[in-house]
Amino acid sequence: MANPARPPRIAVLKYGGSSVADADRIRAVAAKVAARCQSGERIVVVVSAMGKTTNRLIDLAADVSGNSSGYKREMDMLMATGEQVSAALLAMALRDLGCDALSMNAYQIGMLTTDAYGGARIRDIDVGRIRRELDARGVVVATGFQGVAENGDLTTLGRGGSDTSAIAVAAALRCPCEIYSDVDGVYACDPRIIPDAKKLEYVTYEEMLEMASSGAKVLHSRGVEIADKQQVELYCGSTFSDERGTRIVKNLPEWLEHPVVTGVAVDTDQIKVNLRGLPEDVHLYTRVFNELAVRCINLDMITIVSEGGEAAVTFSVIRGDVGMVRPALEAALQGLSGWSMNVDGDVAKVSAIGVGMQAASGVAGRFFGALERARIDVLGATTSEIKIAVLVPRAQAQSAADALMTEFDRKVEK
Amino acid sequence: MANPARPPRIAVLKYGGSSVADADRIRAVAAKVAARCQSGERIVVVVSAMGKTTNRLIDLAADVSGNSSGYKREMDMLMATGEQVSAALLAMALRDLGCDALSMNAYQIGMLTTDAYGGARIRDIDVGRIRRELDARGVVVATGFQGVAENGDLTTLGRGGSDTSAIAVAAALRCPCEIYSDVDGVYACDPRIIPDAKKLEYVTYEEMLEMASSGAKVLHSRGVEIADKQQVELYCGSTFSDERGTRIVKNLPEWLEHPVVTGVAVDTDQIKVNLRGLPEDVHLYTRVFNELAVRCINLDMITIVSEGGEAAVTFSVIRGDVGMVRPALEAALQGLSGWSMNVDGDVAKVSAIGVGMQAASGVAGRFFGALERARIDVLGATTSEIKIAVLVPRAQAQSAADALMTEFDRKVEK
Q1: Could you tell me which residue ranges the Aspartate/glutamate/uridylate kinase domain spans (chains A, B) (predicted)?
Q2: Which of A265, A343, B32, B275 could potentially form a cystine with A216 if both were Cys, beta carbons 3.0 to 4.6 Å apart?
Q3: What is the pLDDT of residue B1?
Q4: Cα–Cα dist B331/B329, whole Å
């Protein structure tokens, strides 16, 4: 029994699309949530659309209009129905189990966003009604992924949007957030690349952010940023197994032996751009980077090598942005001749990430030594306080990750 | 070209579920609407959910919960997604045709209703945003069937809800309303019963209300009531044929030769209840009718026959209410003995309706004469100023309707 003298514990639980993909899974999720409610907790469930619903809606729109993806406002209106369906169904399943659940859409949870349709940012959450309903019923089911712009239009939050919704609601309620999916936690490396990667019991916000931006497909960085700023306790676990998942924390617990490297991320969505025959001129580099920046092209792995008055600039961009690179360079280098641009799509970025690097010495030596022994060709390298990243030929990405995982003891012991 | 000195004509066009059942039909509807916009009209389109969407959502809910139909609030949350999908898709199709269309859901069109989930009543419409968007764009696509209760919950308007939405929006905008479906107008009798029934060019609100409440499956009476009260010009036509449809008007035009009978309605959803062995006592009848009324059981075709101090009361109720009749009677007749109740489900109500009856004489004679020649057994009869209705054995309903249609010249001439 909950102690009436103590305010009841509140938690936000987020369930992804595969967790609510059909009627059986919805009932299974309801059983998990009901058990928590009945032990005295107050629960906000945040749900994604059922399984393949989002793709089905996209296909339907494409059937109607060849330009559908350009009608971002209407696409958001369409897509927002997906979470409303799963929220209503989960509320029904919870009521069957004796929980007085209520579904709530973006209007009802007061999820105010910008009007950047398809990729809106959360501006504010008015959790007044959530709090009232939680007090009255103990459980509400809220739609993830969607918000409402100031003019009343529905918006969606873009990739990783439901995680972001859940974390933002938890921040507003000042309670922990648990993210459930078909993956049972955060691994030291994507198990599809390194099958015997260790599962992490703890990872810091900072490491999660670096891993997300280094290509690891775990929690989306926007949600983690909010969790970090607003001090939301985060947990990632499996919907249907009882395996312990991963806690995302501000600082690793004192008693934990801190690893030097926490995880290794592989990003195959990178293109290397090589620019040759430039005069050695810092002002020129600035113009190049500015022209790329105004086009919102994110650069990574920048290296500048100059010799004998001639410079070569190398950087990587994400695959989707590569088409905008040449126009940017042409604008920046207008009037100059003799320069050439070379694009290499067969590259990957491999990064080792860990807050433990700050305290350890000799990490770079171990890192490059491991790659050398594995005969990896390093095409470029950058470092930050908690990360070392290299650009390698795509065909060597798996071997590079494997060498680093072994070197830094990130595999499960056999 | 529209005359800029004159305010542009506004119209509400409502398209039912079969009119937007798939991508092809949505594009075809868009073409019709776009042509109207491009000729200078401002158009509000009100849409139902696509074809079988509503049934699909009901099935999905039934898969999740055996009690789903009892969770009326959650069912409304679920069902309201159907119109949001079709509205967004139609807006996209319109944009492909050069119309700057915008979809709007119940929140955005300000459709305020009671919180009677599953059968909410419209309380108010704030058409401010519709007007602004119409001025800016010329066309908006609004969701039918759904509303928002004062607490922000989604509601649905029940049977015929999208017609009601469209007529209410037209009333708020003080403009005409055109209802499009797969039927090309209102017929003097359901063509599935009388295949050569005349299509009506005009019908009065009053006749439509009587026809709807007499079992004709045309416009739902709630919408017609609003149109009548708020003087909304109504038109019913086919989505995909250019056949002229039916105008629903306050008064038939002067130049039109008014028929005596406008239409014949057949209602097979009736049950006859016969109550015998009551003492002749008006106070007792009142108690019976009151007990039925508090249970919201609508009575029709009431006859009371008394002889030698003993009375028999006969009335009809709609099939779905029959289970509540005996408890009501037991409550009303508590302490009395010797009465018995008999239920006959094999009956139908056949009604002849026409504002022309008020001016014509000998209508009842023609009505019963026609039934007599067709050897119809009349089990009960009631009349109002514009209607004569009889209860007949269900097996004779078609013959009775046919006899009346012929007698009152309501069939297409061969």
Answers
A1: 10-236
A2: A265
A3: 47
A4: 5
C-alpha distances (whole Å) from B34 to each of B28, B40, B138, B368 are 10, 10, 10, 51
Beta bridge partners of A111: A125
Distances (CA, A) of A355 to A135, A182, B327: 40, 27, 75
pLDDT of A366-382, one tens digit each?
999 999 999 999 988 88
| Mean pLDDT in residue range A18-47 | 96
Q: What's the CA gap between A89 and A353, in Å, rounded?
A: 41
Q: Decide if B394 contacts B376 (C-beta within 8 A).
A: no
Contact between A67 and B26 using a beta-carbon 8 Å cutoff: no
Question: What does the alpha-carbon distance between residue B207 and residue B359 come to, in Å, rounded to a whole number?
Answer: 15
- DSSP helix/strand/coil, A343: strand
Query: SS in 3 state form for A150-176?
Result: CCCCEEECCCCHHHHHHHHHHHHHCCC
A/B interface, count of CB pairs below 8 Å: 112
Q: What Rg, from alpha-carbon coordinates, does chain A have?
A: 24
Report how far apart, in Å, the C-alpha atoms of A193 and of each of A350, A401, B352 are: 12, 8, 77
pLDDT, average across residues B9-23:
96
A112 touches chain B (CB under 8 A): no
Give DSSP secondary structure letters for A224-270. HHHHHHHT--EEEEESS-----EEEESS--TTS---S--EEEEE--E
Paired tokens of B31: 């073409």
Specify burial of residue A208 (Cβ count, 10 A radius: 0-12, 13-18, 19+).
Answer: buried
Among B78, B91, B96, the residue with its CB nearest the CB of A88 is B78
Q: Cβ–Cβ of A23/B96 closer than 8 Å?
A: no
ipTM of the modeled complex? 0.85
Which residues have CB under 8 Å from A330's CB, separation 6+? none
Residue A106 DSSP code = T
B153 interfaces chain A, CB cutoff of 8 Å: yes
Flag whether residue B91 sits within 8 Å of chain A, measured between CB atoms.
Answer: yes
Q: Which residue of A has its CA nearest to B23?
A: A64
pTM over 0.90: no
Mean pLDDT of chain B, nearest integer: 92
Distance between A83 CA and the closest CA of chain B, angstroms: 10
Q: What's the confidence (pLDDT) of residue A253?
A: 86
Q: Would you state the pLDDT for residue A3?
A: 52
pLDDT at A343 over 60: yes
* 3-class secondary structure, A397: helix
> What are the residues facing B64 on neighbouring strands?
none
- Is some CB atom of chain B closer than 8 A to the CB atom of A84? yes
Q: State how far the Cα of A101 lies from the Cα of A371, in Å rounded to an integer.
A: 54
Tell which residue, B93, B164, B89, B78, has the closest CA to residue B123: B164
Element (H, E) at B11: strand B10-15
Measured between alpha carbons, how far is B153 from B155 in angstroms, rounded to an integer? Answer: 6
- Minimal Cβ distance to A67: which of B23, B96, B152: B96
* Whole-number Å distance between alpha carbons of A141 and B78: 13
A28 touches chain B (CB under 8 A): no
Mean pLDDT score of chain A, rounded to an integer? 92
Exposed/middle/buried for residue A131 (C-beta within 10 Å: 0-12, 13-18, 19+): middle
Paired tokens of A26:
């919805």
Supply A220's token pair: 């989306």
Q: Which amino acid is at B258?
A: H
Q: B39 vs chain A: nearest CA distance in angstroms?
A: 23
For B58-82, how does the pLDDT look when each residue is reduced to its tens digit (9 = 90+)?
A: 999 999 999 999 999 999 999 999 9
Tell me the C-alpha distance between B377 and B107, whole Å: 53
DSSP B16: -
Residue from A290, A348, A291, A342 nearest A318 by CA: A348
Q: Per-residue pLDDT tens for A136-194?
A: 999 999 999 999 999 999 999 987 899 999 999 999 999 999 999 988 899 999 989 99
**Is the Cβ of A108 closer than 8 Å to some Cβ of chain B?**
yes
